[in-house]
Amino acid sequence: MKIAAVAAHFGRDIDQCLTKIEMIIGAAASQDVDLLVFPDATIGGYLGTFAGTDETGLPPVLTEDAPELKRVAAAAGDMVVCLGYREFGPDLPYNASVCLTGDGVLGRHRKVHQPVGEASVYRAGDRFSAFDTPVGRLGMLIDYDKTFPEAARTLAAGGALMIACLSAWPASLTNRAPRLVQDRQTRLFDLYDCARAAENQVVWVSANQTGTMGRLRFLGQSKVVGPGGEVLARTWAKAGLALTELDVAGEVARARTVLSHLAERRPETYA
């Protein structure tokens, strides 16, 4: 199957976001992509700062059955598409992602782990759940979730062979490097992608925003990582599509033939 991770910028204008999403889906369809993963905050963009208080304002809030999501589903057709948006919640909205095809929603995730400032504008999710899709069992994480090994491990233990991580991951605000490739957040972003794939022996699909929003400068660096931690395809700081073709079940099984990390855990020894 063909898997692709998107690197692109998505701003506040919803119509522009949806048009760009449809264009990217169309381009992916022309390459017979089966699974397409967009960044966090695909519809309406991310916060301008971690507190979300600058002139860029806050992203729009959509309901679970918003017409915007139905429009994306119509464009997706047979393709499995993951994308992010700000979802209505009882007191604060969620930073959410949805996985869908033209037949409807396959799974959802609400970001659990919140960096400094997010708690004032987002309600935290409370679970990690793998789910079945036409391309195999899948789990989703959002951005900072991947910093915590337990998040990806929960999805892998739930049977996920692929984990889609949707990010709006910026460069360091406190120690900016002259070039994004030298930024410490670039190093961490790449490190987490490869480590989470290798330690869980899964296919890892990491999509990230590019460009800027307020004070934030996003890294790009979208990639697909194999179950041995090897980068199979990637973008750099600019917009693009990280595309690769592989037998997911076969590669995961091969990675677990001799050493199976999930089977060989000793949870009774973990504090």
From TrEMBL:
Pfam families: CN_hydrolase (PF00795). GO terms for molecular function: hydrolase activity, acting on carbon-nitrogen (but not peptide) bonds, in linear amides. Coiled coil: none annotated. InterPro entries: Aliph_Amidase/BUP, C-N_Hydrolase, C-N_Hydrolase_sf. Gene3D superfamilies: Carbon-nitrogen hydrolase (3.60.110.10). Keywords: Hydrolase. SUPFAM superfamilies: Carbon-nitrogen hydrolase. Transmembrane segments: none annotated. The keyword Magnesium does not apply. Residues 1-248 form the CN hydrolase domain. This is Putative amidohydrolase. It comes from Pseudonocardia cypriaca.
